[in-house]
Amino acid sequence: MTKEERYQKLRAIIQVYLPEDVSVDNITMESHFINELNINSANLVDIVLDVEDAFDIMLENDDMDSMQTVTDALSIIDAKLGNS
Amino acid sequence: MKHKEVISKNKYDHIIQKLPYERPFLFVDELLNINENRVEGCFTFSDTLSFYKGHFKGNPVTPGVILTECCAQIGLVCLGIFLLDQEMQWKESSLKIGLSSSEMEFLLPVFPNEKVRVCSEKVYFRFNKLKCKVKMYNEADKLVCKGSISGMLTNT
């Protein structure tokens, strides 16, 4: 899976949990989940659980704490997949 | 038999004492069973509860939101306290909880003075989010409502 494919896969997951006033076009590499995409902490957990299923990885509490932006999420996914 | 009931009631009292609710918004009387995957508890809707005066006018029926609340207090919060306790995350009076979603189906009405039993099964408890499948039964063991409830529980 290329970096772009991983990004698109993540975008598709995030899209499901966006509030109505945020469009999928708002998702960029720099987007902050809570402050910019208005995703609440409960939905952020859902995103993490979907990421685990989609990429067949397991995230820990520390990963959750450091997952602030889309880039953070991709770095964590890369590290778990052994791509970093 | 009576003696046995008293023992089982006291067994989980420490969890009920940690609940951040009090009357008239405490909807847990006793817990029958609890382990890391499920919880079962009871509540009797006393006819003196204030909402019966307005729901409905001259025809008291327990509101669906109150049934949902009862399911959440027994099924989610009691189980959550038990799970946090197990993880040694329990700190006195620092529990922060919030309902994050609920999807309920209501099948039968619950009238004043009815006793209900809530059974809840954990779907997951991860990153402080607890999601459960809940079912409420009346004294005739008929399903009153069922659904899925999630909430955030933290102790920091």
Automatic annotation (TrEMBL), chain A:
Lineage, opening ranks: Bacteria, Pseudomonadati, Bacteroidota, Flavobacteriia, Flavobacteriales
Record protein name field: Acyl carrier protein
Domain Carrier per the UniProt entry, residue ranges: 1-81
Gene3D superfamilies, sorted: ACP-like (1.10.1200.10)
UniProt cross-references to SUPFAM superfamilies, sorted A to Z: ACP-like (SSF47336)
Highest taxon listed in the record's lineage: Bacteria
InterPro entries: ACP-like_sf, PP-bd_ACP
UniProtKB/TrEMBL annotation, chain B:
GO molecular function: lyase activity
Gene3D superfamilies membership: Hotdog Thioesterase
UniProt KW keywords: Lyase
Any Pfam family: FabA
TM regions (residue ranges): none
Matches recorded under InterPro entries: FabA_FabZ (IPR013114), HotDog_dom_sf (IPR029069)
Ranges in coiled-coil conformation: none
Name this protein carries in UniProt: 3-hydroxyacyl-[acyl-carrier-protein] dehydratase
Biological source species: Kriegella aquimaris
